[in-house]
């Protein structure tokens, strides 16, 4: 059993956590494979249909992140898996049983019994994109030119996912302009226009876009932000703006098996960011990445203890634009690109050819209050604690209400993607 080693408090060890092994399992749960696990029936949190669906598609998100990270071992990774999952879930409305099952297995729908997956998805999207969340997400299905689409596919797509499919004109300049205009409208201009041409041989293009600008529950003092060293490795450092709070209230735990310090900072709108900081700058992040599941993150959320610490964190403004096609092909979805059955969409043979993702993510000193919430009473420590995000780390943006994974990042260099 992986112990989340918690802090010494008034001379006593704060009891062991019930965290998971490196694949993310609980001690008394069946050991899953490393690509995700079923949600726990015993936990009341996961009995809520929206939360159970959020856990399923979040596990898909961790799978997608792991593949994406392995394809970019020396680069930052920024991903909002929810936008990609939404596009796939919407596409499954047009799939016959064999192809629908392929998509549903990748999204872990086969592990939940919900007769109205798409209706529940509508609830989830409404919950996580509520105005107070500061999170925007949108997805779109784009089809090849002159395709005749069945109205029986369009109607449920609009009902559950609030979007209509787009049919390409065949004019790459006009098609790119239309897609850019749609992205700008959905993201309120927060994501830059793309210059990537839309390939002429597209059959089905999925597009997922997301943007988040966090607001801390407790703001940072801009006067304490200064240029400090960020250690890329043992030998190389870069100077980046680091925000600082000498008396930060955060939730903390030390995971001895993963050799990392875990911290959680609250954001407004019932959101939080969980940081995974290796004990050594040279430590490979793979073991931490392999442990990530909805259930592991849920356990962390329950087990971390509120403490006061000296905190430094880099200001962050990241963006990503590119394909996740290859990543999806490696997580059970290759058949969608070969010979899928989308006869609920059209009578013509069509297949998935490209999946694009655009994301923007930032945080700065902004916060709701200059003082910590009076409801947060930190544990008394027998030693001072520092938490400095001054070396490569992983972060997870999570919606506290539903448990949904909204963004995940591997930050090897905070200066940008």
TrEMBL record:
GO MF: serine-type endopeptidase inhibitor activity
Record's subcellular location: Secreted
InterPro entries attached to this UniProt entry: PEDF_serpin_dom, Serpin_CS, Serpin_dom, Serpin_fam, Serpin_sf, Serpin_sf_1, Serpin_sf_2
Main location (coarse class): secreted
Keyword Nucleotide-binding found: no
Alphabetized UniProt keyword annotations: Glycoprotein, Secreted, Signal
Domain Serpin: 62-414
Gene3D superfamilies, A to Z: Alpha-1-antitrypsin, domain 1 (2.30.39.10), Antithrombin, subunit I, domain 2 (3.30.497.10)
Highest taxon listed in the record's lineage: Eukaryota
Keyword Transcription: no
Gene Ontology annotations of biological process type: epithelial cell proliferation involved in prostate gland development; negative regulation of angiogenesis; negative regulation of epithelial cell proliferation involved in prostate gland development; positive regulation of neurogenesis
A Gene Ontology cellular-component term: extracellular space
Signal peptide: 1-19
Family under the similarity heading: Belongs to the serpin family.
Name of the protein described by the UniProt record: Serpin family F member 1
Organism: Panthera leo
């Amino acid at each position: 059993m992986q112990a989340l080693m918690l802090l010494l408090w008034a001379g006593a060890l704060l009891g062991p956590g019930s965290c998971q092994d490196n694949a993310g399992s609980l001690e008394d749960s069946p050991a899953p494979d490393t690509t995700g696990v079923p949600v726990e029936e015993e936990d009341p949190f996961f009995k809520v249909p929206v939360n159970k669906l959020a856990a399923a598609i979040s596990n898909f998100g961790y799978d997608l992140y792991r593949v994406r990270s392995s394809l970019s071992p020396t680069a930052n990774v920024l991903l909002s898996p929810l936008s990609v999952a939404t596009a796939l879930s919407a596409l499954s409305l047009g799939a016959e049983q064999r192809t629908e099952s392929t998509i549903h297995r990748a999204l872990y729908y086969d592990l939940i019994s919900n007769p109205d997956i798409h209706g529940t998805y509508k609830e989830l999207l409404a919950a996580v994109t509520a105005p107070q969340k500061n999170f925007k997400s949108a997805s779109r299905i784009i089809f090849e030119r002159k395709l005749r689409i069945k109205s029986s596919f369009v109607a449920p797509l609009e009902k559950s996912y609030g979007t209509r499919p787009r049919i390409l004109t065949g004019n790459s300049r006009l098609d790119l302009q239309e897609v850019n205009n749609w992205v700008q409208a959905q993201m309120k201009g927060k994501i830059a226009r793309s210059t990537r041409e839309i390939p002429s041989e597209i059959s089905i293009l999925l597009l997922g876009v997301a943007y988040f600008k966090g607001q801390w529950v407790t703001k940072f003092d801009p006067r304490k932000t200064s240029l400090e060293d960020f250690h890329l490795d043992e030998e190389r450092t870069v100077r980046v703006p680091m925000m600082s709070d000498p008396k930060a209230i955060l939730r903390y735990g030390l995971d001895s098996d993963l050799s990392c310090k875990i911290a959680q900072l609250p954001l407004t709108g019932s959101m939080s960011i969980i940081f995974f900081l290796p004990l050594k700058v040279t430590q490979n992040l793979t073991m931490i990445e392999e442990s990530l599941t909805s259930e592991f993150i849920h356990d962390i959320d329950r087990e971390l203890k509120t403490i006061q610490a000296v905190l430094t964190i880099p200001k962050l403004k990241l963006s990503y634009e590119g394909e996740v096609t290859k990543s999806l092909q490696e997580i059970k979805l290759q058949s969608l690109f070969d010979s899928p059955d989308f006869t609920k969409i059209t009578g013509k043979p069509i297949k998935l050819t490209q999946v694009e993702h655009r994301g923007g993510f930032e945080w700065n000193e902004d916060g709701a209050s200059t003082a910590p919430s009076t409801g947060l009473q930190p544990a008394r420590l027998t030693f001072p604690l520092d938490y400095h995000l001054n070396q490569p780390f992983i972060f997870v943006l999570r919606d506290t209400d539903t448990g949904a994974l909204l963004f995940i990042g591997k930050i090897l260099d905070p200066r940008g993607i």
